[in-house]
Amino acid sequence: MNLSFVEYRTCVLPHEDDQCFPISKLEDVWTWSDENACKWDTKPLQPSTNYCYKGSGSSCHLDWKDWKLSPRIGRETVPKTLVCHDMKGGYLGDRFINGTQVYDEYRFFHWAGIDIFVYFSHHLVTIPPPMWINAAHLHGVKILGTFITEWKSGEKICQEILKNPESIKKFIMKLVGIADHYGFDGWLVNIENKVCDEVGQVKDLVSLVDQLRNEMHNSNPDSLVIWYDSVTGIDGKLDWQNELNSCNRIFFDHCDGIFLNYAWEEKNIEKSKTNALDRLHDVYVGIDVFGRKFYEGGGFNTYKALEVARKYNLSVAIFAPGWVHEIHGPENFSNLEYFFWKTLQPYLYLHGPTKLPFQTSFCHGAGLMKYHLGQVVSNSPWFNLSLQQYQPSTGSCRYISFEDNKIKTGQEVPGCIENYVDDAFNGGGSLILQMPRSGSNIPPGSDISSPQRILLCSLFCSEQFILSIATKKLDEDAELGILVKVKTVKGKHHSFLLQEKNETVLKFPEDLQVILPVDDTQEKRLKEQFDMLGAIPSGLSIDRSGNWEMRYYLIPQHQVTILEIGALIHVGSVLLGFLDIRELKPRE
Length: 588
What we know:
The protein contains twelve helices and 30 strands. By secondary structure, the protein is of the alpha/beta class. It is globular and about 80 Å long.
């Protein structure tokens, strides 16, 4: 979507046919058909970097040495992170296809730190709402639906599905068809009821899992089928193991991964590592943020469970992170959500975009108002994750003091990179960049000009490229520099500092190449000679009273890969409301 030319409309509460619903009855699965099902406009899964870097407690801060030598790790060599939604049963304001006029819905914006998102509910077939599919796919994150049966009613459903090979095959193809039709990437299979072994239905259940995986892979090679640790493969009893062992091994062998139950101790995790053999990263250690019979009680102690899982090089499945919103309330959500994910950062592996042109306004997919080119186009609050824009690769360094899993009042320190909803260039929010505050956990040796990482990426430019930004100063003497790190095809690294003017008080190493924005004459020439649609909007009209400024930087390099985008702040706060990166290609 070209942000410069987005035509925003006021969100209204839609009619029933504009909503997403799960499938609760087996008979409705049998009769489902893509011919009579609604068709959503969902985004395909976008590529993301095949390398990552390990998060840190300082989150977005770097010292200059780290900026030059950011360690990268192949993503195939590190464990994965899965997030399982489970927000008050699901299908709240997020079920509306075109969004709602409510700002305070639960939203997720830490996509860079996760690999898989599961939309979960207690209905038979949980179909992820399109806004979650779009937000996940934009960030290169796979999204799964849930197939679940529970208790006595679930036992009867399983008997019906597993009664013969034909019904098994029919059910599998319905699930494959549903995932393909609505555009998501697979299934979490959660059988939480006894399966009748007297007639061989445990063996049939294994066959269902195996066939579902194979058919999903045939339909979508990037798909996943993950088994939840519940029914055993020995006798069909509902008996959570809390580890990978001989009781659930057969299901693990026939799917893409196992999501372990939460009531584990460290010895269970160690045993799971031993039993996983060469599939360590296909074991997802269940982590319950609500802390129900769970290691260290969850909540703001959740990071302690991640530490154990990563100690054994296993993947994790973080269940119900909406705890922050549900328990602490929407009025505290943004601040506490930043803090919660900051505590998890050291155990995450962060990734970023790989596709040009790249453009974002950093909008969360919600706002108190709606903006276009710096002007208010709607005074109504809104929520629609389909309009979420690409989020930063790092979290916030927000500091909040807590003890015994409870927040201490009066101990909050804002982070230096966070969402800002009181003003925006496009959408419902912008990125506020501000000087680190006392208590922000800045790396040792950092000073007033410590750089802040915004984006980890791998954007190859065969030609010269132009970087466009829209900024707004909240403090008159504030100064923002944009840092760009590139790698040539010969493996050499170059760093650029894009600043507003020659005279600057920003502190930076001498080996940074400083680039100033193009002047009016250069801008006119670029428009005439190159395809600049999106980078320099045609007929751009900004309300100058709003103090938004557009600047364009021409980078004199080609055949390079952009690796990182960062910021350098001197005094006060600046809003970054728009970022566009694209190659300069001659007009046809």
